[in-house]
Amino acid sequence: MLSLLLSLVRIAAAASGVNPELMQESMVNAGVDFGGILVLTFLFRQDLKAQDSRLKRATKGASLAKLAIRVNKAIQDPLFRVDTENGDNLYTSLILADLRRDRGIEKRVVIAAAGKEKIDSVLEQAKKYADNLEMSDLLIVPVVMPSATAPNLIGDEMTSLPTCVALPVGNTAWQTVLEDEAQTALGQGVDIEKDGFCVILKKNGRVGQRTKGIFLERMVAMVEDRQSKGMDVTNI
C-alpha cells in the first residue's frame, strides 16, 4: 500500500509536469501494487475463513463431547445384571467424551436423528443387529427430530433395549448441537423426519462421517469388512 501511494504521488507529479518521463513507469508500478493488494486481500480473507472454520469445528467438537446420554450399566460392567424390573435401575448417565479411547469405554457413537416413525424403525434394526453392533463397538443414540428428544419408551420398551443403544439426555443441548447438522442435511435435500441423518463419532471423539439416511446394517458391514481384510478398525 505504501508503494502504491508513492506511485500515485509520482503519477500526480508527472501529470502536473514534474518528471513526466516517469509517468509510464509509475502507472505500471501502481497497477502491480494494486494487483498485489487484491491478491493479499483475497489470501487474508481465505485465511480468516479457514480460521473461522477451525474454530467452529473445535466449538462443535466440544459441544458434542458434553452431550449427555443414558447407557446400559452393562457397558461399564459386562457382569452387571439388573435386579429389578424398574428400568431406571438399569441405566447410568455419561457424556459422549466418556466413550473416547483410553477412558475405560471405547465406542463409536452413531447419532441417528430422524422423525418418530423412522426412529422406531431404527430401534427395531438396533435390536436385530444388536450382537454385531456391540462387537463392532457401535453405540446408537436415537434422537427424535425436530424436538431433539429421546424416543418415548416406557416399561418393557426400556428394559428390552440392547446395550448398543443409548438415549439422549437434556433436549436443549441436543437441539442446539443438532440444529446446525439438520440445516446442513436440509441443504443437501435430506428429508430429516422421513429418512433422517447420522453423525458418526470416531473413538477419538472426532466426527468421522455424516450420512444421509440411517443404515445400521451398512455400518456393521463396513467394520466387519475392514476386520476381515486385516485393516485398522480402532480409528474409524
Notes on the structure:
This protein has 236 residues and is of the alpha+beta class. It folds into two domains: 2-9 and 22-61; 67-228, Glutaredoxin (3-Layer(aba) Sandwich). Helix content is 47%, strand content 16%. It contains seven helices and seven strands. A four-stranded mixed β-sheet has the order 4-3-6-7, sandwiched between helices. Helix 1 runs antiparallel to helix 2. The two termini are 49 Å apart. The model is unreliable at 82-88 (pLDDT under 50).
Structure characteristics:
alpha+beta; 47% helix; 2 domains; 236 residues; single chain
Find the count of extended strands (DSSP E, 2+ residues): 7
User: Could you tell me the radius of gyration in angstroms?
Assistant: 28 Å
Between the first and last Cα atoms, what is the distance in angstroms?
49 Å
SS-based class: alpha+beta
Q: Give the overall pLDDT as a whole number.
A: 85
The SSE order reads HHEEEHHEHEHEEH
The stretches of 5 or more residues where confidence is low (pLDDT under 50) are: 82-88
Indicate the percent of residues in helices: 40-55%
The proportion of residues in beta strands is 15-25%
CATH homology superfamily name of the largest domain: Glutaredoxin
